[in-house]
Design goal:
- This protein is of the alpha+beta class.
- It has seven helices and eight strands, in the order H-E-H-E-H-E-H-E-E-E-H-E-E-H-H.
- A six-stranded mixed sheet has the order 7-6-1-3-2-8.
- Helix 2 runs parallel beside helix 7 and helix 4 packs across helix 5.
Length: 197
């Protein structure tokens, strides 16, 4: 009985501190692999958001006809990692200055976007983008789209944990692994122990 009460209390505590963030930074295989490595992140789910059809499939999104972007839904413990920390990682691990593309991935489905859940996230994201622009962190202007969150559709199971299950695949080696190396170097203090090498 006491054990059940402790479990229930822990669950309630986790719910109090659990927040959600939606980020689109090109291919969701990359974005998922990055965010799941952060301390304080509870879960990362790849999927589709920002479009105009219900229940899109990967094939449809890849054709660029749905208006959806590939993105991730991140649930995190705000007592361990802040939304501002997530923004810093997001803008450091993809190119927010290229319109509708990330490297060889071209099309509006690969746009840089943040779908804010509440007014606080909107303010934080705007403030961070303004900081990047004023500081001239990038040679070009940030084109990241900032929109209110509506709905997120989970991607098909084969896209979940894609990088960790397919590290030897050429796309993973040449596109995702360098981003993971950058993450480990720049944000070593934010990496979850289970992902430290």
């Amino acid at each position: 009985m006491i054990f059940c009460k402790i479990l229930l209390l822990n669950l309630l505590i986790n719910l109090i501190y659990m927040d959600q963030a939606i980020f689109c930074g090109g291919c969701f295989w990359c974005t998922e692999a990055i965010f799941k490595r952060l301390n304080g992140v509870i879960s990362v789910t790849p999927g589709y958001t920002g479009g105009n059809i219900k229940n899109p499939a990967y094939r449809e999104v890849c054709e660029g006809t749905t208006g959806h972007a590939e993105g991730v839904s991140v649930f995190y413990d705000s007592s361990e990692i802040s939304y501002e920390d997530l923004l810093e990682v997001f803008f450091s691990t993809h190119n927010p200055t290229t319109l509708n593309s990330q490297g060889n991935d071209v099309g509006e489905q690969y746009r840089s976007a943040i779908f804010y859940i509440n007014e606080s996230q909107k303010i934080s994201a705007k403030k961070y983008i303004n900081f990047l622009e004023k500081s001239k962190v990038f040679n070009q202007s940030v084109v990241t789209v900032l929109k209110p969150f509506d709905i997120f559709y989970d991607a098909e199971d084969l896209h979940k944990d894609y990088y960790d299950q397919n590290k030897s695949q050429p796309y993973c080696q040449f596109t995702i692994s360098p981003k993971i190396k950058l993450l480990n170097k720049k944000f070593s203090n934010k990496i979850d122990d289970k992902f430290r090498s």
